[in-house]
Write a structure and sequence with these properties.
The chain has 113 residues and is mainly β. The protein has a single domain, classed as Rieske Iron-sulfur Protein, CATH 2.102.10. Helix content is 0%, strand content 38%.
C-alpha cells in the first residue's frame, strides 16, 4: 500500500524562478535532502545533490537558481541544470538531478507517497 502524500509547503511559498523549499525524503532508509522549486508555473523537485558529486546545490538555504532565474546551479561546482527536467546543460556533471515526485493541489505542494 502506497504511503499518503506528505505536505511539503504552501504553493505560494514557491515563487517562479525564486527561492526553493528544502525537505527530507527517505532514500532506501537513508534520510536525504531534497528541494522543490517553481519554474514556468510548475513545481519541480529533486534530490539536493549535484550530478557531479553528492554535494548540496544551494549556495544559501533555498537558493538554487542562477542570477537570471533560468537554470539551477551547483554552488560548489558551477554545474547548470534545466529546471523542468534536471538535465545537466553545462559544467562538471556526469548525470542530471534525481527527480522527486511531487504534486500541487488545493494550494499546497505534497510529496507523493
Amino acid at each position: 500500500m502506497a504511503a499518503a502524500p506528505r505536505l511539503i509547503c504552501r504553493g505560494s511559498d514557491l515563487v517562479d524562478s525564486g527561492g526553493g523549499v528544502r525537505f527530507e525524503v527517505d532514500c532506501s532508509g537513508v534520510p536525504t535532502q531534497a528541494f522543490a522549486v517553481r519554474y514556468g508555473g510548475k513545481v519541480y523537485a529533486y534530490l539536493n545533490r549535484c550530478g557531479h558529486m553528492p554535494m548540496e546545490l544551494d549556495w544559501m538555504p533555498g537558493k538554487f537558481f542562477d542570477g537570471n532565474g533560468s537554470l539551477l546551479i551547483c554552488s560548489t561546482h558551477g554545474a547548470l541544470y534545466e529546471p523542468a527536467s534536471g538535465r545537466c546543460l553545462a559544467g562538471p556533471c556526469a548525470n542530471g538531478l534525481v527527480p522527486v515526485a511531487v504534486e500541487e493541489r488545493d494550494g499546497m505542494v505534497y510529496l507523493k507517497g
